[in-house]
Design a protein that fits this description.
single chain; 298 residues; 5-stranded mixed sheet; binds zinc ion
Length: 298
Amino acid sequence: MARTKRTRDAVPLRRSCGAMAVHMSLLEQFPAFRARQFQLEQETARRRTREVNLAKLKLATIKVIVHVVHRVPAENISLAQIKSQFKVLNRDYAATNPDRAGVPAPWKGLVTDSRVRFKLAKVTRTPTTKTSFTWDDGVKKTSTGGIPSEQPDKYLNLWVGALGGGLLGYAQFPGGPASTDGVVIHYRAFGTSGTAQAPFNKGRTATHEIGHYLNLRHIWGDTEDCSGSDNVADTPNCAGPNYGAPTFPTITCNNGPNGDMFMNYMDYVDDAAMFMFTAQQVLRMRATIDGPRANLVT
Ligand SMILES: [Zn+2]
């Protein structure tokens, strides 16, 4: 039987995101970031206590600059592949993705249009001698083979290149240092065509990482027990990340009968197995868009 040959730059077998590692490192380095995160958390909590009509949210369009950083021709991904990613983002953030039909009945009512949309403003293309990058932000500096961000207060800067160490992507939470602000995605986990590789070829790595960029946490709260929280009330408490394509219900942390909301974009399942944000996650993202990321929106 033929076995799938995995080349050196193939995508990892299971999802891994560097956002929390970056986040912890930046919080240590920048006390002001910690203070801004605290303030945003308080503002988000205040909103939770108010009646917010999520159906009447203003449309918020975020302009995006895509930085393609390439060593070999395959890494210099096509404009068509970039556009395929935007199609996914605009469906996922509008909750018009066809696979939302797979949301289990008890949670169907939670699926929410964030009223956030994405517009490709510009593509830059930068040759590099680097074989791969990691979450140390090397891709964001010329001196380390990358390209600096451009007006990160006005644009979501999104780097696409080869990532090593099993990473599919990472993002910076709101309120952090401007020069590194943005999202980084593995070129084999970007868009739905070209170099995108199963099981991460449905554009969901960017959906997940932009969730972090808009202040969403992983649904298990980033502890490998039941103590962590994503500070979102309508995602059930759960133990740790789910991988692959789990079966409903998957029960942890006494969260029966429905169990983990593993089909949430902020879990670690395969692209085809994640298809929803909840109402409270949308509220959290919108607090960010009205707060530290207000300048992004025109
Ligand atoms: Zn993540």
